[in-house]
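Q: For a teaching session next week I want to show students how multiple molecules come together into a single three-dimensional assembly. I've collected the sequence lines for a complex. Could you give me the predicted structure tokens for the whole thing so I can convert them for display?
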Amino acid sequence: MRIGKGRITAAEVARRAGVSQPTVSLILTRNPKARVAPETRERVLRIAAEIGYRPNRLAQALVARRSFAIGVIVPGFDNPFYARVLSGAEKVAAEAGYAVLLCEMGALDVLQHLNALRDRQIDGVILAGIAASTLPAAALDDLNVVLINQPSTRFASVGGDSLKAGTMAAAHLLGFGHRRLAFIGPASSIPAFRFRERGFVQALRAAGVSMPGELVVRADASIAGGLAAMRRLLALRERPTAVFCANDLVALGAHKACGAAGVLLPRDLSILGCDDIEMTTLVTPELSTIALPQRELGARAVRLLLRQIEEGPRETPPAQVLPPRLVVRGSTGPVAIPGAAS
Amino acid sequence: MRIGKGRITAAEVARRAGVSQPTVSLILTRNPKARVAPETRERVLRIAAEIGYRPNRLAQALVARRSFAIGVIVPGFDNPFYARVLSGAEKVAAEAGYAVLLCEMGALDVLQHLNALRDRQIDGVILAGIAASTLPAAALDDLNVVLINQPSTRFASVGGDSLKAGTMAAAHLLGFGHRRLAFIGPASSIPAFRFRERGFVQALRAAGVSMPGELVVRADASIAGGLAAMRRLLALRERPTAVFCANDLVALGAHKACGAAGVLLPRDLSILGCDDIEMTTLVTPELSTIALPQRELGARAVRLLLRQIEEGPRETPPAQVLPPRLVVRGSTGPVAIPGAAS
DNA sequence: TTGTAGGCGTTATCAC
DNA sequence: GTGATAACGCCTACAA
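A: Of course. Below is the structure for the complete assembly, covering every listed component.
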């Protein structure tokens, strides 16, 4: 084992400085009420620096009964959305001296991951892309939790305004004159998707536009899902003229299906995504979308979590909701003039 | 604080079972040489299960002098490549009961991250996309290390055969009749990129094809980098007929530049990437590439690391190299017949 | 077969 | 001002 062999302990520093070990600890923690002789402090600090003493955070954790680590649980990285969220989260956590324990669903399920995190005395958990409501009630007991992209009365949360995203999508497409609109999205319990759909449907209804059942297509929140779903839509006798997708991956899959079928965007069909991941600018035409600040979500989630850890939970859990932003690129446009076929 | 309040300890189990705490420990660790009365074991196990006892892994770590956690350090998630590697790594680690501490470069540099990991008594570290040779010699001392995609005499490593990837790229493009070939890649010290370039150049040279300096373009290993680089190539008096890119992101950027410039792939130009990330199938035509098994790299890296942790380092560090695989899609093709312009 | 003693590296609370 | 002493929760001897 190469590990943990000759690590320098506070006791070692104490020995060399000719003081007791607790004194070293007292000085090193810079405790305000540490009333130590200046020359002692000097000497201890010098020696500690010389021999490169670094406190064992595990030992600190044991006595402090907290680990200075947080867990982040995500469904998977196939969706770059979570990669970005994670990136923002890691940055803030690292700067604050917290470690990020990464948990991806798949090998272990959420509950197992939560248990593993508990066993490590995790200080808090961030849940992204996983519906807290599908978990057993006790699963999150006694944990500091921040939810991403799902409002909750029980837990703190930060997310984009999914309902509004749906509304904006509807407004954008209606504004182009579309009246036969479709939606592609998962039937999953993930709140963000449900709210996007609901916002979209409500806005359509408010505008007096109805969406027949055949135009709501269920699909995995993935490229493959979007592709399959769009194929179904294209096979319809009467196609939609515009499609809002639950997220960009789905939209990109739909985009691809159109390319394969020779359907020209946005002339024959408009496609609108949601999230604004990098891939959106890769395709031709580039994908219009409703942008969510992904890294910012991760960053804020951690800040919220750290505050909760350090100040204790609030009576009423804070909920930050960030405004979505419409990004018009090339995949959406006005409805084609009938009969003006090229 | 919601944390660590009423956690059940082994002592508590012992009290209820009417045995001593070490006995509980003895039974729970399922130590082979634990010769305990069957009924005692029975009772302890039952009570432990009843009150939901779970050992504190931090305390275990303290005495075991290891944390059952590994660190993974990556440059960033902007490149889905690392997301996939991470995904593979996390899966194996989680199944083995190890935690994954995620470190992204940026907020903290590698050295700071390494220190933070050391302080947490990390059992080992996986380095991806970061040249170990650029680190101070002592930075990785006394650590179990596995490098991804960079061979090393000092550390264990797992990676694709980058040199061969370059060779295969050359063979593929030469096979289509291309003789004016370009390379786009970073000037970075990341070994994988250097080897891909070297393999490519060497294979060309071996085939008697030279690559003038103007056809080797330096660019960030990103979409933006590839885009800018391809613009430069397209501005050349005499354009290349085929381009090999250091990775898929660069290739996608190049792909995009061609789309914008009206250069038709693969008729006017062939583009070949490397890695095989999901995005490659999103563009039209889909990107041909040299595939590397990304999740597998992550998974193997962890397995190698765990073995090293559990069995101690080998005299000669193991190096697994996985064969790259050519994936021909639509972005590469035969050189256009001169004069046969459409 | 089981309990007692000691220690892992800290921090916190006291006497001195 | 400083140094014992006692946790934190667990594990590994060794005694009983």
